[in-house]
């Protein structure tokens, strides 16, 4: 954090002699004198007077000595604060949050188990629900985030992270507010005959595949494939086209122009805690606490 020649100068000034400073610094007297000579040449100042009884600070040396002492104190304080900041960074969980995958369920867990992590803090890290970039966000677990919360049985997601189920969301159908079905309290598949239903194609999510198989048993329902992972553009397209959208009960408030309605089926998808494949000790300990106690 500072010039070692300056530290040698302060030591000589404190000791009053080159020989005593050399002993304290585990150097030879010659090495100490060379460092002082180099410092004086660099500063173009005479800092010490050599006398028979030792060394004495010059007026310029007294000024440099005073500021050097202050610099050393500031340097030590800076190091303490930097180490404390580094420790604080290690003593925090970074939790991702987005419109479709809000961190609220994690907050409920945190307030149950935070007593096991004294001194720990939470950093909420927002991210975009981008169907093209979501796999990159999942892959950032352990770097950008420690935890995400989301509905998940995607094979592509589970290749990139660990998943601890916490509960289930119900599959529902989102209906544009101006649609004739928007006033219904619950839908049946028969009521969807003649409609276009937007939903994810088969092959990545077992729970979605089961729903899709049930819908395909009604050929009168036209299915429009969406991107593999939803983002706001999917919800916007439903509103713009007037098409129905396969949704979840947790997304009721995502788009104000859509009404999310239950369907007379029992299809659900698990939601839970996503974390890196090789978690650190504290992340693993938090997961173990949640797993051992179960959801509230």
UniProtKB/TrEMBL annotation:
Keywords for the protein's UniProt record, in alphabetical order: DNA-binding, Transcription, Transcription regulation
GO terms assigned for molecular function: DNA binding; DNA-binding transcription factor activity
Domain of life: Bacteria
Gene3D superfamilies reported in the protein's UniProt record: 3.40.190.290, Winged helix-like DNA-binding domain superfamily/Winged helix DNA-binding domain (1.10.10.10)
Pfam families to which the protein is assigned, alphabetical: HTH_1 (PF00126), LysR_substrate (PF03466)
This protein's GO CC annotations: protein-DNA complex
Residues of the HTH lysR-type domain: 1-58
PROSITE patterns, sorted: HTH_LYSR
CDD domains reported in the protein's UniProt record: PBP2_LTTR_substrate
Ranges in coiled-coil conformation: none
Annotated PANTHER family: HTH-TYPE TRANSCRIPTIONAL REGULATOR CYNR (PTHR30346:SF28), TRANSCRIPTIONAL DUAL REGULATOR HCAR-RELATED (PTHR30346)
Family stated for the protein in its record: Belongs to the LysR transcriptional regulatory family.
Protein name, per record: LysR family transcriptional regulator
Source organism of the structure: Flavonifractor plautii
């Amino acid at each position: 954090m500072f010039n070692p020649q300056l530290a040698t100068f302060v030591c000589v000034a404190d000791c009053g002699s080159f020989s005593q400073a050399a002993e304290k610094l585990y150097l030879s007297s010659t090495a100490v004198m060379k460092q002082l000579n180099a410092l004086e040449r660099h500063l173009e100042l005479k800092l010490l007077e050599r006398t028979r009884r030792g060394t004495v600070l010059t007026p310029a040396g007294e000024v440099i000595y005073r500021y050097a002492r202050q610099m050393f104190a500031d340097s030590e304080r800076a190091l303490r604060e930097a180490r404390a900041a580094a420790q604080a960074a290690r003593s925090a969980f970074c939790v991702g949050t987005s419109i479709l995958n809000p961190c609220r369920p994690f907050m409920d867990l945190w307030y149950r188990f935070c007593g096991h992590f004294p001194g720990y803090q939470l950093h909420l890290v927002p991210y975009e629900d981008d169907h093209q970039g979501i796999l990159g966000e999942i892959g950032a677990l352990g770097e950008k985030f420690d935890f995400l919360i989301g509905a998940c049985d995607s094979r592509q997601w589970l290749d990139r992270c660990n998943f601890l189920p916490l509960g289930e969301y119900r599959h529902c159908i989102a209906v544009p507010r101006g649609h004739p079905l928007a006033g219904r309290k619950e839908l049946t598949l028969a009521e969807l005959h003649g409609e276009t239903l937007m939903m994810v194609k088969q092959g990545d999510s077992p729970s979605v595949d089961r729903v899709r198989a049930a819908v395909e048993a009604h050929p009168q329902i036209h299915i429009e494939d969406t991107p593999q992972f939803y983002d706001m553009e999917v919800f916007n397209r439903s509103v713009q086209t007037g098409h129905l959208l396969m949704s979840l009960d947790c997304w009721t408030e995502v788009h104000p122009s859509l009404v999310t309605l239950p369907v007379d089926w029992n299809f659900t998808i698990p939601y839970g805690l996503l974390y890196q494949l090789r978690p650190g000790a504290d992340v693993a300990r938090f997961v173990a606490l949640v797993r051992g106690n179960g959801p509230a």
